Amino acid sequence: MPLCTIKIPRDKYDGIPPETRDEIIISSGNQALDITLNGLRIPDSEDREIRILVSKDIPETEMSLSFTVGPNEYPDFAPDQNSFFPRAEDIHHVGMEIQSEASNSPLNVSTTKMEAWSDTTFIICSPENKDEPKFLDNLEALQEIGKYINEPRVTLVVSPAMVEGASSNERESSREAESFENVAEKISDLLAESLGLPEQKERNTEEKVAQKADSGISIEFDCLPKEGHLIPQELREYVGRKIEHYLNTHGFIRNEGDAEIWIRQGNPETNIVTSAL
After folding, report:
1. How far, in Å, CA of 16 to CA of 14, rounded?
2. 237-246: pLDDT as tens digits
3. What are the CA-CA distances from residue 250 to residues 30, 55, 171, 174, 246 (Å)?
4. What top-level branch of life does the organism fall under (predicted)?
5. pTM of the entire structure?
6. Beta strands in the chain (DSSP E)
7. Where are the domains of the chain?
């Protein structure tokens, strides 16, 4: 799932005429995604997402294209297309093309980052998945994982539409809908319990409200496993479904695509292009 994140300083965002602002920003994001999909030969043209973050703490306009790589990224396509391992030179070329276009747009983007994530699990949540997932293999192995995880971090990114829906009680659930306050901490606690994280291990959380986001709510779990102790796919899938179950039973998912979950480990292979290059 290529995700285009555009970070814009508040003063620059406010300086764009409101009547054209959304069109300018979204057009730049879509252009970057088109270049990425075509340049890296991603088989699913609908596999795309835009997120816009605006803050006075953002020093300059930046665009990042994050995508996952691996042996089974596109299982719904032909066998020779389901694995996805783009060449480093292709990623760099795509970043250069995006930066060339974005730096000359009204946004005047100063930096483009290409981020390739491996050993990552991405889940689009469904309101139908309300049953708590069961880990049928070695539960002790799951609990052992926490010993080898460093710097666990949960980031919650919420769209304005979801915040407005929460404040006006538009969301429906078998339980009373909760506010977004402290949701990242609650999910961090859930992950700590599921993965057996030691109590003394520091855990970080962050909650953001995007200016615009295609997904209503995004949960991102990042960590740095010790060498030789990557979280395997079946365990990533299990903890992802645990998060999905929490979101479903606490009123955060009403429609398909209201929420998404990223389970990421390690650091991405990053290619940075600036206007000076």
Report:
1. 6
2. 999 999 999 9
3. 33, 29, 10, 8, 6
4. Bacteria
5. 0.87
6. 3-9, 49-55, 62-69, 111-118, 121-124, 149-158, 204-209, 212-213, 217-225, 259-265, 269-274
7. 3-118, 121-265
Q: Which residue has 């879509």 as its token pair?
A: 30
Smallest Cα–Cα separation from 221: which of 117, 132, 101?
117
Cβ atoms 61, 10 nearer than 8 A: no
- Could you give phi then psi for residue 257, rounded to 5 degrees? 90, 0
Fold of the CATH domain 121-265: Macrophage Migration Inhibitory Factor (3.30.429)
- The fold adopted by the segment(s) 3-118 is Macrophage Migration Inhibitory Factor (3.30.429)
pLDDT digits (tens, 9 = 90+) for 143-200: 788 889 999 999 999 988 777 655 444 443 333 335 676 899 999 999 998 888 888 7
What are the beta bridge partners of residue 108? none
Q: Mutual orientation of helices 18-39 and 88-103 as an angle, nearest 10°?
A: 160
Amino acid at the residue 12? K
| Amino acid, res. 162 | M
Reading the block at residue 148, the tokens are 């080898």
Please tell me the distance from the alpha carbon of residue 48 to that of residue 41, in angstroms, as a whole number. Answer: 13
